[in-house]
Amino acid sequence: MAAPLKLRLIARHLRPQRRQLLQGAAALLVVNLLGTSLPLLVQHTINSLNPGFSLPQLLQQALWLALLATLMAGMRLWSRVLVFGAGRQVEVLLRQRIFDHLLRQEPGWVQTAGSGEVISRSTSDVENVRRLLGFAVLSLTNTALAYALTLPAMLAIDPLLSLAAIVLYPLMLLVVGASGGRMMAQQRQQQKDLASLSDLIQEDLSGISAIKIYGQEPTEENAFAALSRRYRDAALGLARTRSTLFPLLEGISSLSLLVLLALGSGQLERGSLTLGGLIALILYVERLVFPTALLGFTLSSFQTGQVSLERVEELLARRPGIEDPLQPEPLQTRKPSGALEARGLCVR
């Protein structure tokens, strides 16, 4: 399925919740505005300190920072409630839609398609779609806003030092892009193996009497063991990719902070950068570390959700073998003619 088509499918599922999502996006905007303002306030507070500073003034600045941080935490919580709630609502509507669609199918279709495949698409795939439309949407929006607001503030403090601190960040995007397709293929294979395993279990439970009569227990055990190994290998392959990607991203983020400290300490010694400016840049880099490092998990959820959404849409696109006509013939309105007779009856 082409990427534009997948994006249209995502937009179609999110459209009924657009009001709630817009409110969540507005809350995220407030969170990132506050997150950008706090390091600037810290910079101003540190630079204003002098040998004759007053303790009440310092306590006032600290109280102001605490209030802004508390407001930021509350708005972040509210944004997650809104966006995650929208994903939950989409999940409920999608489950109901799948249930109604399955009721319209002919009786023998489940045996043909495989009960394990149907169960897998109706449960785990729907959960992956919920994570796609909830967590992934929230994380991608937050990452975009964080970069859009934080980078200009960093460049305003010291352009060269800011560029040196984030010069390794494009490497993260390259690593994520190289691992994205692999994770998507591994996730698709894992879902297929899980469906095959569920299908075998369902068939064995349904035909347990025949298996015992004909002594097929060893054969079914070997088949179950083979499918279990395939599912285990697929899950381990996906786990290896994820466990390699996330530490690599965190290591690149730590190198960026190390570059900032190495170069910033020299500028601080020469007097070309204030202590408040260096601390503000450190806070900004730390602020970008989490969304950038989380980008790997976000991409994993996004790729997994796309695969699951594709599988769910394939299930919903299946036309039932018996369909009601678009224009059914009306019932006859005339009264039926006839009589009821009983003949040759006797009582003994």
In short:
The chain is an all-alpha fold and 348 residues long. The chain has helices spanning 3-14, 18-47, 55-103, 109-113, 115-122, 124-157, 159-166, 169-206, 208-213, 217-270, 275-293, 295-316.
Describe this structure in words.
- With 348 residues, the protein is mostly helical.
- It has a single domain (3-197, 236-316), classed as ABC transporter type 1, transmembrane domain (ABC transporter transmembrane region fold).
- The protein contains 12 helices and no strands.
- The protein has helices at residues 3-14, 18-47, 55-103, 109-113, 115-122, 124-157, 159-166, 169-206, 208-213, 217-270, 275-293, 295-316.
- α8 crosses α12.
Which terms would index this structure?
348 residues; mainly alpha; ABC transporter transmembrane region fold; 0% strand; elongated
Please state the second-level CATH architecture. Up-down Bundle
Overall pLDDT confidence? 84
The number of helical elements comes to: 12
Runs with pLDDT <50, length 5+? none
